[in-house]
């Protein structure tokens, strides 16, 4: 079925794009962690453990700060904007609704970049 084939290609295309963006974001998270006071004084094993434990939380936090409720979309750092269905098909799957709910709950806080950075640091250290 060509319609189903097209859908699979579209989903794989979204997955590829999301994977590329997530990889870039993970690199930024590692760079961010290295700038946290005391982080690099931890053993490499401890640094890796904290990064592994917190990376998804920080990725979700970062994307949720770029939520547009009027369109129910998330905008990634490169400007790619996806709606709920596209996010689901890009690999979020069953997490999609939870991510959008969390984004909606963050809105009233009107967090700036500094507050997002502090919350990211807390996620990382509490990994």
From TrEMBL:
One of its GO terms (cellular component) is transcription regulator complex. PROSITE patterns: NR_LBD. Residues 1-127 form the NR LBD domain. InterPro entries: NHR-like_dom_sf (IPR035500), Nucl_hrmn_rcpt_lig-bd (IPR000536), Nuclear_hrmn_rcpt (IPR001723), Retinoic_acid_rcpt (IPR003078). Pfam families: Hormone_recep. The keyword Transmembrane helix does not apply. It comes from the Eukaryota. GO terms for biological process: cellular response to corticotropin-releasing hormone stimulus; retinoic acid receptor signaling pathway. GO terms for molecular function: nuclear glucocorticoid receptor binding; nuclear receptor activity; RNA polymerase II cis-regulatory region sequence-specific DNA binding. SUPFAM superfamilies: Nuclear receptor ligand-binding domain. Keywords: Nucleus, Receptor, Transcription, Transcription regulation. This is Retinoic acid receptor beta. It comes from Colius striatus (Speckled mousebird).
